[in-house]
Amino acid sequence: MTDPSPGQRIGRAAFERIMQRAAELQAAEADVGEGLTPDEVLALGREVGIPGRHLQQAMLEQATEVVAPAQAGLVGRIVGPREITAHRVVIGEPDDAARALIQWFDANELLVVLRQQSGRVSFEPLSGMQAALRRGTAAFSSGKPKFMLARATLVTATFARLESGYCHISLTADLSKTRGAIIGGAFAGGSLGVAGALVAGVLTPFALVAAVPVLVGGAIGWYVLKRYAPLAERARLGLERALDYLERGGVKPGHQLPPRTGGLLETIAGEVRKALSGRTRDE
Known about the structure:
Layout: H1 12-29, H2 38-47, H3 52-63, H4 73-79, E1 83-91, H5 94-108, E2 111-117, E3 120-125, H6 128-138, E4 154-161, E5 166-174, H7 176-203, H8 207-225, H9 228-250, H10 264-282
Antiparallel strand pairs: 1-5, 2-3, 3-4, 4-5
Helix pairs in contact: 2-3, 5-9, 6-10, 7-8
């Protein structure tokens, strides 16, 4: 085995794989017996140079892990879930995390606060002139993708305080309207195929000819159904990138947040500034 040359640089993805593999090897050598206590996990982590706050966050995420419910029925298994969920444990207070998430969605998604309660915020799609303005100014920016949750009819965020200054955030995007439209389109395609088969069966005695429209309609319906998976995956990435922002330090105490300004002119100027600044960074 050869050591990396001093001048060789390791990319982020390779670094993450190396650290994950090293942790697996370390865990394989450790005698865990019936399991480890949190203090023992922290001690083992310190031995390999992992900061205690990272281990604490990872243990909290493991303890609060949410398992998505299985999709009931054939349609659920074939098409996909009505709701997309993502969750994360971040450093900060729930109220500060809620404010940071509202700001993130305001800057990067076409979402507006529908209702805000203690520990829970729901968002609905932005509409009207402001939504049209946001879509228009987005064309001037070639930076990171925006509006990844545009297909969601409702996005819900819940915040739960955990020990040691951490909070658990769970995000849910409701895609039932998009899912229903796709299922309806697939059903329409299949129905056309059946109707064509009935007509062909009347006009010709050959069963093979009558079966062709059924096959074509089935293929169209299957193609339409498969369009949902990429849309659901994009929504999931939209939730995950919002959590990435909060995890990377987006959660700040209330007194550190910039003041919000209102008014249509200020909204227009702000959207133009954000679009131009994103374009300048890309150039």
